[in-house]
Amino acid sequence: MAPELRQATAADVPELEALLASQHLPPQGLLDCVDTCWVLEDGGRLIACAGLELYGEAALLRSVIVESSYRNRRHGERLVRNAIGEARRRGIQTLFLFTMEASGYFARFGFEGCDLEDFPEAVRSSFQYRGVSSMPELQGRVTAMRLEIAD
């Protein structure tokens, strides 16, 4: 049976933070965007998540993670497609993200590399943008990407 896709709740945040920490992803601000975060639940356990931080007509795709024992089963694809669909329904024009190792994966959805200067002012207020932009040593290891969402 396939894991259940559902919207995250505040009660999920501690388990999601632990999942993110297990893969060295930042959990900061997760509670603030829990209404636009989705999880896959299998047998009462959260095994994957993806979220959106909304900034007007732009959004940041964040916290895309699948527990290692559940990878290579298209769970990440299911979550990313769900997030892109939700962004489209909400009128988002451009979706941004940061990745250290998955630029090829996100390119399959149409994301393209971009510069920090391409991020709109509103998105620059995000924890992730502020972190990457303030640490030159991190900029060399992180790829910024964007997806223009067609109507």
General description of the model:
The chain has 151 residues and is of the alpha+beta class. It has a single domain (4-148), classed as Gcn5-related N-acetyltransferase (GNAT) (Aminopeptidase, 3-Layer(aba) Sandwich). Helix content is 28%, strand content 29%. A 7-stranded mixed sheet has the order 1-2-3-4-5-7-6. Strand 3 and strand 4 form a beta hairpin. The termini are far apart.
For the structure shown, list the relevant keywords.
single chain; 151 residues; alpha+beta; Aminopeptidase; 7-stranded mixed sheet; globular
Q: State the end-to-end CA separation.
A: 33 Å
Instruction: Return Rg in Å.
Output: 15 Å
* Quaternary organisation: single chain
The stretches of 5 or more residues where confidence is low (pLDDT under 50) are none
Mean pLDDT: 92
Number of domains: 1
Order of helices and strands: EHEEEHEHEHHE
Class inferred from helices and paired strands: alpha+beta
| CATH homologous superfamily descriptor | Gcn5-related N-acetyltransferase (GNAT)
The strand count comes to 7
Described by strand count, sense and barrel closure, the largest sheet is: 7 strands, mixed
Shape: globular
Strand content: 25-35%
| Range of helix content | 25-40%
| Gross CATH architecture | 3-Layer(aba) Sandwich
Spell out the blueprint of helices and strands.
Elements: E1 4-7, H1 13-22, E2 37-42, E3 45-55, E4 58-66, H2 75-89, E5 94-99, H3 103-107, E6 112-113, H4 127-134, H5 136-139, E7 143-148
Parallel strand pairs: 4-5
Antiparallel strand pairs: 1-2, 2-3, 3-4, 5-7, 6-7
